[in-house]
Amino acid sequence: MKILYLTSPNFFDLEISYIRELSKLADVRVLLYVAPMNLKSSAFSLDSQLKKEEIIIATEYPGMEKYDGMIDRKQWFIVNDYTNFSLGSCYRLNKKMIRFMEAYNPDIVHLVGTGKQKSMLAAMMDGRRKMLLSVHDVIEHGNNESFKIQLLYKVRNFVIKKMHNILLYSYISDDILKKQLNNIPHTIYHSTLGAYDFLNSYPLISNQYGKYVLFFGRIDYYKGVDILVESYLKSNLPKQGIRLLLAGKDNVGIVKNMDNENVIILNRYIENDELANLIRNSMFAVLPYRTATQSGVTKSAFALGKPMLCTDAGNLPIEVIDGKYGKIVRADDSSHLTEGLNWMVSNTDILEVYADNIKTDWNEDGQYSWKCIAKDMIANVYEKIIENNLYGAN
């Protein structure tokens, strides 16, 4: 089976592992669409970009060599848009991607995510190939009344409506998507995400922050960081010398005026090696989301055997099973989150049990391993689309 996988840096953290395992079962080529706005995104990081509007094999792209051992750079190609998604550049590069497809002649094209570039590509493909579209998040986070969010919905829905075959990563997304699209029929498939095990490749370094609990990821309103700070300051943790560490770029000014010696703020992009050690050295990670479908944060924490305290938003309670991998508290409830923080630091023996459960179920041979996920995708998604002659676009 030949699979062409079209994606962007936003999902690089999971795709490092998924493509590795998928490549053991099929012939895979990856087209990674890179623009100035996503040079540092998820686990992906480039310091500079070539000024070429070309598709360039990753073995020849400066900065990609640091991923040797994580990806096979002979399989990965950078779709290099240095204009930041201008319409003209998207169109010209999409034409080149279509020519790449024709030369490679895949059995299926797996398109990941939506946006300007992918909406144009979906229109240009016009049913030429059997295609699958991954939709990681059916909710656009932010002010639903804003022009930007409304535009994102329109672009995303255009792409989804063009596709017959949709892959979702949580069952909670099904009803949301059907309501948004007025029950337009699609063939819906499901998969899950394994632990982001590439983080284990970074060596352990000493802890410079003492005892702390950790929030990591981009700081936005929907992630509830303001509630976490409020809950932490009301908890017993400061008195016990346990600090709160917030690691990630603040996009909305939530931590702008925070001035407390017990709250450590790393308000910037966090490189992979630093993130791995922040997780390792923490007592546990906190996910205080107001809204969610699923989260890659849990998969990063689980990769390093770290328990979670998280809210009951969206699919999170299914990922962080209460009493197995961590503790669940009510979303948007600072008092309940404070209780959760106090409970976690008072039950370190149980945290060790959670850590053992995570290591058993989320390791490379566990029930949530990428090996199992790749096998399931081949048998129950790709082969069914190919056998049933389910073309991707209307």
In short:
The protein is α/β, with parallel strands linked by helices and 394 residues long. Helix content is 36%, strand content 18%. Keywords: Transferase.
The oligomeric state of the chains shown is single chain
Order of helices and strands: EHEEEEEHEHEHEHEEHEEHEHEHEHHH
The H-level CATH homologous superfamily of the largest domain, spelled out, is: Glycogen Phosphorylase B
By CATH, the topology of the largest domain is Rossmann fold
Query: What is the number of helical segments per DSSP (H or I, 4+ residues)?
Result: 12
Evaluate the radius of gyration.
21 Å
Give the structural class: alpha/beta
Number of domains: 2
Blueprint (SSEs and pairs):
Layout: E1 2-7, H1 12-22, E2 27-34, E3 40-41, E4 44-45, E5 55-57, E6 76-80, H2 87-104, E7 108-112, H3 116-125, E8 131-135, H4 147-162, E9 165-168, H5 172-180, E10 187-190, E11 212-216, H6 225-234, E12 243-247, E13 263-266, H7 272-281, E14 285-287, H8 296-303, E15 308-311, H9 316-319, E16 326-329, H10 334-346, H11 348-361, H12 370-387
Parallel strand pairs: 1-2, 1-7, 2-6, 7-8, 8-9, 9-10, 11-12, 12-13, 14-15, 15-16
Antiparallel strand pairs: 3-4, 5-6
